[in-house]
Amino acid sequence: MHIDGVKNCKHIYLSKGLASFSCGIKIAICDNNWQLSRQLNSKIRKILVEEKIKGEIYEYMKTDQLRKNEILYDILFLSMDMFESDVMQAVRELRNKYSYSKLILVSEDAKYLQEAYKAQPFRYLLRTDQIEEIREAIDSAIEENKEKMGFVLDENGRLYPVLMKEILYMESLGDDVLIATENKEKFIVRMTLKKMYNMLEYDFIRCSREYIVNIRHIKKIGDRDIILDNGYNITISFRNMKSVKERYREYVFRSNQML
After folding, report:
1. CATH number for the domain that contains residue 109
2. Closest by alpha carbon to 252, among 215, 204, 197, 201?
3. How many CB atoms within 10 Å of residue 154?
4. What are the beta bridge partners of residue 100?
5. Which of 20, 29, 32, 233 is the 20 to 30 A CA-CA neighbour of 125?
């Protein structure tokens, strides 16, 4: 389908943030102390349940196991107490391999703190930290990674990177989807709206058979419509009314918690 001023593209998914939020985040724990690893696993699992976040947790006892696998982790908890020597070299190697992961270093005390920050971890936690400190680290990692999620759209060899956060709405055009961004750009991708929705993370809401909207760009929800930041008005189907309002309330509540 061709519309004047709109770029006709094929869709390529680019994941430089979360591995795949729609399928759940992936978290790895590397600690040679099995008991402590299990304790951290239990705390993380409790946080994911309470935050209603889908996720998988993988545990490793040796860094060699991490070096050899090909899984892209969103968050990596690494115990610094497991190293007898050359701690920073091991950390740097893992930091380079998992460049898109949020690396959270964990230690019994702060003896590695000064050295650790040379490796630029996302967080440095002590084993004595309570569940709320771990929760804050996970929530912050998810929010920061989400800012990097996006698509690369290909128009006859010319590539257009589009971040998820920049998308205002998506509109069904039969077997195509129109993507409108806050930068007033519009793209058409050969894909059904249903398939597109299944690829998106939770900041997008299906408000009818014709539209998906980015929840972060909702200015106001009326009785039967949504008003976006740019003033664009989208009708909510009766079938989706309840879920749209519930999801928006959850988003507002979650956003206020992060302030």
Report:
1. 3.40.50.2300
2. 215
3. 15
4. none
5. 20
